[in-house]
Amino acid sequence: MMHAQFDPTARQAIATAAVDAKIRKNLSWQQIADASGLSVAFTTAAVLGQHPLPEKSAEAVVQLLGLDDEATLLLQAVPTRGSIPGGIPTDPTIYRFYEMLQVYGTTLKALVHEQFGDGIISAINFKLDVQKVADPEGGERAVITLDGKYLPTKPF
Questions:
Q1: Considering only CA atoms, which of 128, 120, 126 is closest in space to residue 144?
Q2: Cβ 76 vs Cβ 69: under 8 Å
Q3: Does residue 114 have an active-site annotation?
Q4: From the centroid of its chain, how far is CA 7?
Q5: Cβ atoms within 10 A of the Cβ of 37, count?
Q6: Which of 24, 28, 83, 122 is catalytic?
Q7: Three-state DSSP class for residue 142
Q8: Contact 128, 145 (CB under 8 A)
Q9: From 57, 99, 137, 141, the catalytic residue
Q10: Is 15 exposed, middle or buried (CB count within 10 Å of its CB: 0-12, 13-18, 19+)?
């Protein structure tokens, strides 16, 4: 029998339970991140099933959310990554990121290769930040910073 720690559906079930607890306890992602001792972006991704949490962080998050000991183990497990099922995303917010990559993906690729050469921007050695700023023309703007290590292609 497969231990739940290695079962991707168990990992997803913990994500669902964690979000339910977050809502019931009226917590913000920032409050959960503060308990974990890690950034809000990394903690949110980890709780949603995209990264493992270090042991102390997992224990703190589980205690804050009131989850069981199995959740502590699952939050430390290396997950099966990828949060968007196959096909074009249908959630409007996620779709807009998809749309941004459809429109600017080739531009980003061209600029990265021109400035760095052949390689990729890591999503593992990576930082993410989301800020809400005032728009001088009225309303608000979302400033999203994607900060990944450049990894050159190495001939062998």
A1: 128
A2: no
A3: no
A4: 19
A5: 13
A6: 122
A7: strand
A8: yes
A9: 99
A10: buried
Catalytic residue among 24, 28, 55, 96: 96
Q: Which residue has the tokens 């390689």?
A: 119
Phi, psi of 152 (to 5 degrees): -70, 150
54, two tokens: 């270090």
How many CB atoms are located within 10 Å of the residue 119 CB?
A: 14
One digit per residue, the tens of pLDDT, for the chain of length 156 reads: 344 446 778 888 999 999 999 999 999 999 999 999 999 999 999 999 999 999 999 999 999 999 999 999 999 998 888 877 788 889 999 999 999 999 999 999 999 999 999 999 999 999 999 999 999 999 999 999 999 999 999 989
Neighbouring residues of 147: CB distance < 8 A, sequence distance ≥ 6? 126, 127, 128, 129
**Among the listed residues 44, 121, 39, 52, the one whose alpha carbon sits nearest the alpha carbon of residue 80:** 52
Show the tokens assigned to 94. 């996620």
In the residue annotation, 122 being an active-site residue is answered as: yes
What is the value of pTM for the model shown? Answer: 0.85
Domains of the chain (ranges; CATH) run 4-76 (1.10.260.40), 92-152 (3.30.1160.10)
83 catalytic? Reply is no
Which residues does 131 contact at the CB level (< 8 Å), separation at least 6?
142, 143, 144, 145
